Amino acid sequence: TPMADAVPVQVYAAGSLREALVEIADNHQACTGQAVALTFGASGLLRERIENGGHAQVFACADMDHPQHLAASHSWLPPVVFTRNTLCVLTTQPLCDRVGVHFCAAPETLLATLLRADVRVGTSTPGADPSGDYAWAFFRRADAVLSGACAQLTAKALQLTGADHLPRPPPGQGTYAWIMEQGLADVFLTYYSNAIAAQVQVPHLRALPLPAPLQVHADYGLSVRKAAPPAAHAFAHALRQPGAQAVLQRLGFGAM
Questions:
Q1: CA–CA distance, 237 with 234 (Å, rounded to integer)
Q2: Phi, psi at residue 39, to the nearest 5°?
Q3: Pairing of strands 36-41, 80-92
Q4: What Å distances lie between residue 132 and 151, 163, 180, CA to CA?
Q5: Within a 10 A sphere around the Cβ of 160, how many other Cβ atoms?
Q6: Per-residue pLDDT reduced to its tens digit, 75-112
Q7: Which residues pair with 38 in a beta bridge?
Q8: How far apart, in whole angstroms, are the C-alpha atoms of residue 79 and residue 224?
Q9: Dihedral through CA 230, CA 65, CA 247, CA 88, nearest 10?
Q10: What is the sign, positive or negative, of the torsion defined by CA atoms of 56, 71, 220, 173?
Q11: What backbone phi and psi angles, to 5 degrees, belong to 185?
Q12: CB under 8 A, 24+ apart: contacts of 100-104
């Protein structure tokens, strides 16, 4: 193993990767001696930080668009997909009791539930956070099942995370578990991995898969700054190896 760089590798990563990357970075340091400094946030906001001079050497993003945008400036390598995620409905047992636990079983019953006046639908913020963009992709798919659904869902969606001005949970509490515990939404359209993490903190939450016609898949892009030191390229390589992939899949992510 080449001697570890004394300077930590600077990694900017999507907030949904927090739990996985903390574990992967710890394992990487234990194996190589190389420290990794992790900065988490909404992918779109992180890209803006990089463009405004942020010192990221590795960018692990919740979509391919933001790292492709950086690669177009020729200072970053073209991104590769290193993991995947899917959108799901995070909801509460009381809502399941109220509308019927199988409301996600068919596209029609899911949309009928989401469009109810007494059901508040939470999302992240499109543009700032790919999770919000994927929620809007779901809204567009909904239109093919029920004409007009996209406009109705867009109008009622509560953008509760993904932007700098929004309230944040207290330290140590996950964003989505906190939002649901605070009663800010009845359902939240988020990544399956986020929903799994929220259930660990708040066991009565339910993570319901979207019916196939409405499912939205997320490809996570990984890019490295061309001028980054070998240690940064080595960490990016490690993210695609079996050890790191096993951590990601255990936490609800999909294979590359």
A1: 5
A2: -120, 120
A3: unpaired
A4: 15, 10, 17
A5: 22
A6: 999 999 999 999 999 999 888 888 887 787 788 999 99
A7: 11
A8: 8
A9: 170
A10: positive
A11: -150, 155
A12: 101/206, 103/208, 104/208, 104/209, 104/210, 104/211
Secondary structure of residue 117 in the 3-state scheme: coil
Q: Which phi and psi angles does 80 have, rounded to 5°?
A: -120, 150
Q: What is the pLDDT of residue 205?
A: 94
Q: Give Dmax (Cα) for the chain.
A: 60
Q: Residue 219 pLDDT more than 90?
A: yes
Residue type, 186: D
* Count of residues making up the chain: 256
Both tokens of 92, joined, read: 């509460």
pLDDT at 69 over 60: yes
Task: Tell me how far apart the alpha carbons of residues 79 and 68 are, in angstroms, rounded to a whole number.
Answer: 6
Q: Is the pTM of this model over 0.70?
A: yes
Is the Cβ–Cβ distance between 158 and 123 less than 8 Å? yes
CA distance 109 to 91: 15
* Main-chain phi, psi angles of 177, to 5 degrees: -60, -40
pLDDT surpasses 60 at 202 = yes
Q: Residue 194 and residue 43: Cα distance in Å, rounded?
A: 15
Decide if pLDDT at 167 tops 90: no
pLDDT confidence of 3, banded at 50, 70, 90?
A: low
Backbone phi, psi, residue 147, to 5°: -60, 130
